[in-house]
Amino acid sequence: MKKEKFYSENDIPSTQQKELMWKNIEVNIPLKKKAAVLFHWKSFLIGNAAAVLLIFSGIGIISTYNNLFDSSSTEEQVYATLNTATKQLQNLTPLLIQQASEQNKNSIESTAEAIDEIDKLINEIKTDIINNGSSPAKETSLKRLYATKLDFYKEILLNQEEQS
Description:
The protein is mostly helical. Helix content is 80%, strand content 0%.
C-alpha cells in the first residue's frame, strides 16, 4: 500500500505544521505537576483507625462472651472468697493457741479440731457436687457448713479478746 495512492502531497503536513500541531497538543494537555505519591496519609490514618476499632470491638466481644458464658458462677466466687477468708483465719489459729491461757487453750484446740472436721465435710460435699452435680440441698448444706465454720472462728477470736 502506497500513501501517494490515497494522499496527495498537500494532504501531508509539512515539518512546520507538524511542530505547530504538537505545540498546540502540548498546550491543551494539562501537565501533572504533582509527583506521584508513594504514601497516602489519609488512607493510612483511616486504616489505622479502623484497625483500632476492630481491636476494641474484638476485646469487647471476647469480654462479653466470657461474662455470659463464664464457667465460674457467682456461687463459686462466693465459695472461693469464703475459702480464702477461712484459710487466713486458719493460719491465725495456731498463734492464738500459743497465746491462750491454759484454761482457754483446750477450748480453742477442740474448736480447731471441730473446724478441721467441718473442712472435711465441706470437701466431701464439694467432691460430690463435682462428681454428681449440684442440688439445692447440697448448696444449702455447704452454706451452713461455711457459716458454722465462721461461727467457730468467731468464737475463737472472741475468747481470745475476752482473755486479753
